[in-house]
């Protein structure tokens, strides 16, 4: 990366990442009226790896996610998935090609059971092919939906609450249901927007381990927005850092954690959790970057 502290290892990774199958963002610019929320962002999220997207409040992370999932159209730049141009493609096409997402706020149907919520993930993927299949699923498709949901619930360890109403579950369980729903969709790349938000330390650790297992077993890629640096350092193969819509750093998690540029970006928003005593090494307990930090005003 253009960062002065990126080493040769990282530079090699950058070149290799762009050639791998998966998501490639090139020169992405998104404006809201006169405000540039994301400015000429270039990054990759390959299949088989976990890629982190971090940055202070208002940095442009969710906006980038929204452009990837198709709810925002960029002013400039391109988004491709396995070489297919998705820059202006509808959400349904992206889902059909294998891109799924979760949201910052858990979006479950509280009055439905866990099983029904998880089945919706598979149905959403089918609807990517044709909306009519969601209304009139064929017999074989119903069986496929049911099977995918059972597999996903088993992988996330929530089969024991499959019949419970989602509204009755704890935040930790609801996060697992949300993940299971995304996995049931059998997507090749998952965009996870702060999936550990609201979890306590041990729940967050267990969730991180589960995500690593999912990537290894299912062979998928994950692009994750996350404030918890324990999750970033324990999970990500590579991370990008945004600030005021600009890519200010990219590299391995340890490089991100020890970067002076990243530290400066977070100054004034929240304690980084990076020890002043040794600025070159990642912190023993990196902590939470800015999950509760104040929203900064843009120039
Ligand atoms: N719909 C919108 N209309 C106008 N401005 C917006 C809109 N959505 C986001 N913005 C602005 O774009 C910038 C980037 O916002 P975004 O939500 O992408 O940041 P973020 O990094 O996801 O922040 P957070 O960590 O707080 O979720 C902010 O200045 C925000 O106020």
From TrEMBL:
CDD domains attached to this UniProt entry: ABC_Mj1267_LivG_branched
Top-level lineage group: Bacteria
SUPFAM superfamilies: P-loop containing nucleoside triphosphate hydrolases
Keyword field contains ATP-binding: yes
One Pfam entry name: BCA_ABC_TP_C
Residues annotated as domain ABC transporter: 23-269
UniProt region (Disordered), positions on chain: 273-299
Keyword S-adenosyl-L-methionine: no
PROSITE patterns the record matches: ABC_TRANSPORTER_2
Keywords for this protein: ATP-binding, Nucleotide-binding, Transport
Gene3D superfamilies: P-loop containing nucleotide triphosphate hydrolases
Protein name according to UniProt: ABC transporter domain-containing protein
Organism of origin: Sporichthya brevicatena
């Amino acid at each position: 990366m253009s960062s002065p502290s990126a080493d040769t290892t990282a530079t090699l990774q950058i070149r290799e990442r762009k050639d791998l199958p998966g998501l490639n963002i090139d020169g992405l610019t998104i404006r809201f009226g006169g405000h540039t929320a994301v400015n000429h962002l270039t990054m990759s999220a390959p299949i088989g790896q976990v890629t982190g997207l971090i940055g202070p409040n208002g940095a442009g992370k969710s906006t980038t996610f929204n452009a990837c999932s198709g709810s925002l159209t960029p002013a400039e730049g391109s988004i491709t998935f396995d070489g297919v141009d998705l820059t202006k493609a509808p959400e349904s096409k992206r889902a059909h090609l294998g891109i799924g997402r979760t949201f910052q706020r858990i979006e479950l149907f509280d009055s439905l059971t866990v099983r029904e919520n998880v089945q919706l993930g598979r149905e959403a993927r089918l609807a990517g092919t044709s909306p009519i299949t969601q209304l009139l699923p064929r017999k074989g498709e119903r069986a496929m939906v049911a099977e995918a949901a059972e597999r996903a619930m088993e992988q996330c360890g929530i089969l024991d609450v499959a019949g419970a109403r989602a509204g009755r579950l704890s935040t930790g369980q609801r996060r697992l249901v949300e993940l299971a729903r995304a996995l049931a969709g059998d997507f090749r790349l998952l965009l996870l927007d702060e999936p550990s938000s609201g979890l306590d330390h041990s729940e967050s650790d267990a969730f991180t381990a589960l995500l690593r297992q999912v990537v290894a077993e299912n062979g998928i890629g994950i692009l994750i927005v996350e404030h918890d640096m324990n999750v970033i350092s324990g999970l990500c193969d590579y991370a990008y850092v945004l600030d005021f819509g600009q890519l200010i750093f990219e590299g391995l998690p340890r490089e991100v954690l020890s970067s002076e540029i990243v530290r400066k970006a977070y100054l004034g928003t929240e304690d980084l959790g990076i020890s002043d005593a040794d600025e070159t090494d990642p912190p023993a307990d990196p902590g939470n970057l800015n999950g509760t930090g104040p929203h900064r005003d843009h120039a």
